[in-house]
């Protein structure tokens, strides 16, 4: 076996279809790009049509096959419609990536009920609902990969981010529950917990140079994350080589979580 054939057997996503929520920006867009370059047909699901078009064009320009579906993941009816559109137009996904997220940042005693509900709907309910829609089909076919984008706040509290932290802690628990339900049928379910990375969700934080530098100093690598840092973990967890890796939260954070 040649080196290329061996690596393909471990990591190639050729012939697979991936649905990536939040795939129009930030970490979701970076992961969608990685999966597409690894051979998967990629469908982006998000609510900003202009960004969806740009991200899809970027993927196709790179030689990948990409499509998009517009929906607000905080709207259950819209989410159900989007899932059915996915199945009708592109078939059921082999790979499901949940990267969509919202993070209202008021102090906890100022957090409103609508703000809480919106955060849970996008960050936790949507991964559950899409898992319920597509996970059993993956199990029936004997192959599937589900990847959730968790957070440092899955395991620690940050200020002015209470609802987000609760939703991400719940997401790692959902990861384990889905893994328990479907892993024996060939469906690996894992989460990636990023470090401190510049995304649209974190622009307000990166506006503070002092805080940005302090976070970088807390890592073992001496820097904050870049969007490309997630490509390797995502392609591995989405591919054949991750068949025996399941129920895990993989911290891709330059060592931030262990300092």
From TrEMBL:
Q: SMART domains per the record?
A: PKS_KR
**Molecular function (Gene Ontology), one example:** oxidoreductase activity, acting on the CH-OH group of donors, NAD or NADP as acceptor
Q: Does the keyword Nuclease apply?
A: no
The family database entries (InterPro entries) matched by this protein are listed as: KR_dom, NAD(P)-bd_dom_sf, Sc_DH/Rdtase_CS, SDR_fam
The organism's superkingdom is given as: Bacteria
**Pfam families, sorted:** adh_short_C2
> Where is the Ketoreductase domain positioned along the sequence?
16-195
Enumerate the UniProt keywords alphabetically.
Answer: Oxidoreductase
Similarity comment: Belongs to the short-chain dehydrogenases/reductases (SDR) family.
- This chain belongs to the protein called Gluconate 5-dehydrogenase
Protein species of origin: Streptomyces caniferus
Name the gene. Answer: idnO1
């Amino acid at each position: 076996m040649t080196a290329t054939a061996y690596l393909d057997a471990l990591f190639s996503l050729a012939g697979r279809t991936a649905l990536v929520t939040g795939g129009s920006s930030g970490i979701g867009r970076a992961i969608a790009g990685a999966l597409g370059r690894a051979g998967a047909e990629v469908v982006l699901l998000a609510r900003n049509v202009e960004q969806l078009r740009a991200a899809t064009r970027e993927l196709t320009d790179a030689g990948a096959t990409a499509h998009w579906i517009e929906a607000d993941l905080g709207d259950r009816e819209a989410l159900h419609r989007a899932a059915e559109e996915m199945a009708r137009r592109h078939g059921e996904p082999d790979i499901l990536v949940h990267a969509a997220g919202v993070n209202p940042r008021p102090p906890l005693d100022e957090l409103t009920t609508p703000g809480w509900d919106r955060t849970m709907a996008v960050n936790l309910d949507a991964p559950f609902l899409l898992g319920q829609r597509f996970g059993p089909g993956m199990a029936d076919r004997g192959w599937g990969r589900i990847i959730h984008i968790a957070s440092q706040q899955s395991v620690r509290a940050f200020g002015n981010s209470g609802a987000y932290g609760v939703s991400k802690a719940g997401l790692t628990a959902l990861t384990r529950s889905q893994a328990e339900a479907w892993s024996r049928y060939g469906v690996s379910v894992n989460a990636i917990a990023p470090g401190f990375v510049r995304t649209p969700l974190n622009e307000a934080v990166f506006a503070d140079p002092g805080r940005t530098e302090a976070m970088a100093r807390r890592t073992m690598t001496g820097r904050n994350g870049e969007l490309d840092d997630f490509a390797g973990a995502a392609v591995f967890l989405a591919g054949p080589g991750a068949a025996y890796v399941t129920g895990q939260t993989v911290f891709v954070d330059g060592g931030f979580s262990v300092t």
